[in-house]
Amino acid sequence: MSDIYYGPLVVVVSYLIGAIPIGYLLVRRIKGVDIRDHGSGVIGATNVLRVLGTRWFVLTMFLDAVKGYVPTMAAWYLFHSHDMQVAAGIAAVLGHTFPVYIGFRGGRGVATAFGVYAALAMPLAVGMVAVGIFIVLALRYMSVMSMVTVPAGALVLLLLAVFHVSDDFTYSKTIFGAFATFFVLLTHIPNIKRLIRGTEPKIGESERQSVSAGRAHTT
Q: Residue 70: how many CB atoms within 10 A of its CB?
């Protein structure tokens, strides 16, 4: 099967899988509201944590990661092409962030990117999860965890390709790392601004509390 003929199909199917709005569906089913009208206004796991609590946060995080893992692994098993894997992974992340099913208003793509990393290099993804958990426990900022682990994963993929650790680590995979890094940082620009102002909410803290804390810090 040729990448030229099947590439567009892989991209479309991967996008449609990535676009399944897990957080939106869970909140709509359990609380009967649109998650985008609450908290940060996105459908990702962190906002689900604010609206539904820890159990649903974990489930959303896992299922959002599956949306990246499944199409990326399927692309490998069907085509044995790292290029196809990368195309599938990028499409899945874009699907999560711009889901066609709910008007293209989705999440920031972090958990889905983790799923893609897992399909590209499982040991790397395990390491990223471990680092992410440490950052969250130490700092209680989900945004910082996202902005550190995703670029770190990209750097590791690049080093593995440069030093040619194995034939499995090609420069094709570094394309996904570069995309994920740029995309995650781009979608976290509001978080970066709030971190600078000292108003970024920590886990378990409402946005109103974080704004009050920021004002107290600057007075």
A: 17
Domain contains 217: no
Q: Give the C-alpha distances (Å, rounded to integers) separating 28 from 33, 40, 121.
A: 5, 16, 34
Question: pTM above 0.85?
Answer: yes
> CB count, 10 Å around CB of 45?
25
Tell me whether residue 85 is in a domain.
yes
> 153: closest CA among 132, 135, 172?
132
pLDDT tens per residue, range 28-37: 999 999 999 9
Does residue 194 form part of some domain?
A: no
User: Residue 120 sits in which domain range?
Assistant: 3-187
For 75-100, what is each residue's pLDDT tens digit?
A: 999 999 999 999 999 999 999 999 99
Residues in the chain: 219
Dig out the tokens for 213 from the structure: 């804390």
CB 119 within 8 A of CB 39: no
76 within domain boundaries: yes
CA gap 88, 85 in Å, rounded: 5
Q: Which two tokens stand for residue 109?
A: 């793509």
Query: Would you call 203 helix, strand, or coil by DSSP?
Result: coil
Alpha helices in 80-206 (DSSP H): 82-97, 110-120, 122-139, 142-162, 171-187, 189-197
